[in-house]
Fold this protein.
Amino acid sequence: MKRYEKFAEDIAELIRSGVLAAGQRVPSVRYASQTHGISPSTVFQAYYLLERRGLIRARPRSGYFVNDNFVGPSLSAPELEAVPAAEQVRETTEVDVSELVFSVLDSIKDPHTVPFGSAFPSPALFPLQRLARSLSSATRDMDPRVTVTDLSPGNPVLRRQIALRYMVGGLMLPMEELLITNGALEALNLCLQAVTQPADLVAIESPAFYACLQVLERLKLKAVEIPVHPQNGIDLDVLELALERHPIKACWSMTSFQNPTGAQVPEERKRALVELLRTHQVPLIEDDVYGELYYGQHAPKPAKAFDTEGLVMHCGSFAKSLAPGYRIGWVAAGRFAQKVERLKLMTSLCASMPAQAAIADYLQHGGYDRHLRKLRNTLEDQLRAMLGAVTRYFPAQTRVSPPSGGYFLWLELPEQVDALKVFHAALAQGISIAPGPIFSPTRRFRNCIRLNYGTPWTDTSETAMQTLGKIIRSLMGH
Amino acid sequence: MKRYEKFAEDIAELIRSGVLAAGQRVPSVRYASQTHGISPSTVFQAYYLLERRGLIRARPRSGYFVNDNFVGPSLSAPELEAVPAAEQVRETTEVDVSELVFSVLDSIKDPHTVPFGSAFPSPALFPLQRLARSLSSATRDMDPRVTVTDLSPGNPVLRRQIALRYMVGGLMLPMEELLITNGALEALNLCLQAVTQPADLVAIESPAFYACLQVLERLKLKAVEIPVHPQNGIDLDVLELALERHPIKACWSMTSFQNPTGAQVPEERKRALVELLRTHQVPLIEDDVYGELYYGQHAPKPAKAFDTEGLVMHCGSFAKSLAPGYRIGWVAAGRFAQKVERLKLMTSLCASMPAQAAIADYLQHGGYDRHLRKLRNTLEDQLRAMLGAVTRYFPAQTRVSPPSGGYFLWLELPEQVDALKVFHAALAQGISIAPGPIFSPTRRFRNCIRLNYGTPWTDTSETAMQTLGKIIRSLMGH
């Protein structure tokens, strides 16, 4: 172990043990250099490493501080470290990632494949029988005239229920602003289209959910990649720089339990994100489909909660928390609400009415919060199981940043391991994974993979992790 | 009445009474000139008039023939004549019609308004209760895993049922080509996007369904308007000219019971349309959402039936024939099938699964053909009722071309009547209509209106027609 690595490990230990608390300043370079008898450049190297691991973060002209949502030692095995994120504003990029994504998606259609590469949690986790009852009773009583009168913005009972849930969480969302869509994916498409023209620049996360890249590709938009820190989410300093340098027309961010990293933007940083974009008058498209899947005591507030000027277009969905396959999402598009609603009318008129009515009925009578509590506990248990397996079977150099919600684990494998090779070798053994390059228009993250732990843990999962570990090790030597 | 008008009326009478049957050749210009003692140019003028009325049609180097889908005298009042359609290739046009369309659409949301302006048939005409039963049983038995495995192209049972229906009608459509969409509107959007880039030219009908104009606007495409003959549909000669003059990237046509004219392209002309586009290697986007609503003995064959090279992208829907509000449509996109499926995955992932499963169940067990027979009879009865009211209450100069399917009546009012004024005056009296200019990017058809007869005829309908007649007369004098 080199000197700077040793010093970094010491500081990391101080953070893990709580001696250095979240938000606290770490020793200045000069102080550390003097007290530890090492050169300032060694301290810098160590801090740089810790920053890449997501443990600390630089504030311009103030020094380094402990990241405020670091997940403690209970979930983080010593050899598992945070994934680094790049520091520079990337060049803008034409997006063309679809072929690769589709080959990955095709691979996970086989029901016998271990679905670590899937984008969905197991359907077994959802109250589909109870929803079917809601579907029956809601459509039995449905007034036929609504099929003509209740086009977009959508079922008023459903929209009221959604607004109520936000209200309980402290976000006042006028029902008039809410539009029901065919899942969040359509909402995101409509939002982007409402505020961009082909060839415009959009600030996106890096890594980003591949569907985001596909939407950009479809709409012929260009991406400016902003690094995501595994713990804190989108890098505000880099974003600020990008906003100053480029004529960015929108910013797309997954503010809670980001796909693929699981990163959660802390509340204060959400506020800062909204404020930064407000200064530049750039709309934020907030993709919040995992917001209900938090493991803590309280739901994370969305960035929309800090929106004072209607610049945040907040997108949600029931697909990941309640009703996969129903394809019911929504958007509260602020000052763009009417424009988005009209685009929706031109694109697909309205969302399927039986599905809307069923979910409206379920939200009123089905016990959604009870279901969610159970779902969150299950997902957190499955996270622990998968983290355990990573510790047991993966090489020690593997870095991971345990999320505090959602169902994705983002792993940085040893540098010499090619994630696409892992993908192919694993698939040959009946295991799917999501390789890093599908999450970047510039094919970065070539040694990263995303694993889905949204499926109940079984012996098959354990064996599959063991097999994956072997595959990764076998790719390290060559 | 001028001499050529008198002679045209004589020939029209021969056609109406069945002396000249569909497909039969009308007297040659020379023969008619000699036997009737009129100049050849008078005969030409008369035949030209008859052609404009949709009664006959020229075949190059063969003379004039009686159109084979002329609707006989039982439906056509003597003073009601076919609507003329322009002859020239129009200039290409940026499409910007949405504001006008949305103001019309907003107007028909009030359930107390007489819905002559609506785009939908009355929901009372559909077996929504029976569908709700299908919904219950289909979702009760639904394997949760399909919510992950059965994304686009969609529910295999539903796709098989749709393919079977086409097979019975003589069209072999491989199930693999079929993609389920959120209604035909999404299918049309995806098709256009698959074969165009922003600023490309698309040949569309004139008048065209306003949603088509909105889709062009949304995708930033330019329109080349091709006239629609009220009986024969899209003008092939003009289309040919347009294809030679302009780099047209796609042709969008509603081949059966066109919205708004009700025009039905005869089978042979569908074949010719496909052949013409094949020669130019231009894809046909066939919007066939009214195909099941024919009044004759046999379903009209879609243009897709004549497609030999996979250039026809055929779009259908259950929204107008079975399940309004379910938002289930489909597309068989020929050689573009994979591209369209991928666009669908990027746009909205898949259609709502309960709705797909319900319709699949209904098609197997619900008695769809029985429902359709009843629906067709009802619509034809309602057409007769509305035509009668037009004859009773509207000015004699009103021209109408009774359709042989669907539920729209396209009327050309006396020239001095402004359809937008009719729209506003009627709305003030609680009656909606669809004014001509919303069906054209160049705001043509200013004295035309579209009336929807898809609602069971009542005293209210009768009174509303009387009121409309008064409004129109009142606008004639000034």
In short: Chain A has three domains: 3-66, 95-123+370-477, 127-368. Chain A touches chain B through 60 residues (CB under 8 Å). The first strand of chain A starts at residue 56 and ends at 59.
